[in-house]
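Module 6 notes. Inverse folding takes a fixed backbone as the condition and produces residue identities as the prediction. Think of it as a translation problem where the source language is geometry and the target language is the twenty amino acids. Below is one complete input and output pair. Work through it position by position during the lab.
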């Protein structure tokens, strides 16, 4: 189960690294605009906000990677903390922005957290 938990945590970290790239570097390009369905004008107007969001997603990814490489109990605690942050951010995003964030971010975080706790 530890291997499954590590893979799920790694996938959540990769997801948030992907979001970082989309929001910080590709937001105004075709790939970034299609990410949220924005036209060029809206992407330009929201680019600073998106870059800030992307940075936060990068912090989540970095924390999850730290949790994977740190020895226990630090690694376990970091994974639990950062996965909890992913879940809270996903639920908040689903309530305030778009319900699909619940499935795209909160659900993978919750599955990974469950696996980490079961593997413990």
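Target side of the pair, the amino acids:
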């Amino acid at each position: 189960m530890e291997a499954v938990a590590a893979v799920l945590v790694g996938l959540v970290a990769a997801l948030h690294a992907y979001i970082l790239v989309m929001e910080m570097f590709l937001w105004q390009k075709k790939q970034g605009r299609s990410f949220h369905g924005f036209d060029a004008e809206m992407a330009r107007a929201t680019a600073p906000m998106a870059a800030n969001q992307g940075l936060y997603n990068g912090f989540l990814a970095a924390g999850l990677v730290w949790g994977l490489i740190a020895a226990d109990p630090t690694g376990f605690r970091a994974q639990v903390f950062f996965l909890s942050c992913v879940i809270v951010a996903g639920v908040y995003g689903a309530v305030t922005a778009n319900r699909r964030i619940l499935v795209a971010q909160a659900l993978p975080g919750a599955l990974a957290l469950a696996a980490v706790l079961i593997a413990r």
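Reference fact for the lab report: The first helix runs from residue 2 to 24.
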